[in-house]
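Write out this protein's structure.
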Amino acid sequence: MFHLDEYIDLPLAHKASFRKYLKERFLDKVPNLKSVNLINVEADPDEECKRLSELIRKSPIDVALVGIGENGHLAFNDPPADFETGKPYIIADLDELCRQQQVNEGWFKSIQEVPKQAISMSVKQIMLSKHIVCAVPDIRKAKAVKDSLEQSVSNLYPASILQNHPSCHFFLEKSSASLLTNKKS
């Protein structure tokens, strides 16, 4: 298992830590995974990207579990996303919309508390997965869902790249699918 993204300089004990989230809601419930590769944001970010990149190149991903951010981001690849980098893991600068989403979701009290950078799996690396499952809840993400599925593929709508994947399955709620022109079950 490879961790998708994590804020730089956010302690594991913080309620917004994705490592904490994964440990409490997944890893503690599925203890017999062959290997778990979490992002260590206490390490030097450049070195951590190199470490994870070396590991993931040796272990192709069967299934990627992803979501879409309110700004259309895929992992922390905010618009305009880099669709070309061959680096499996990157240091991502988080835009204001992405950071505000974290406040809106209750993870932080103010935008000033939200880290400005994260380590993220790159778009190209996500697209190398054999299968992708994209789950998107909430009305706040309805426009991003519409843009991702109905706009042409563009780095301005990072999750739109999923249109090009041969085995990507979207799981939407009625609210997150509410702006789609062509609604299918």
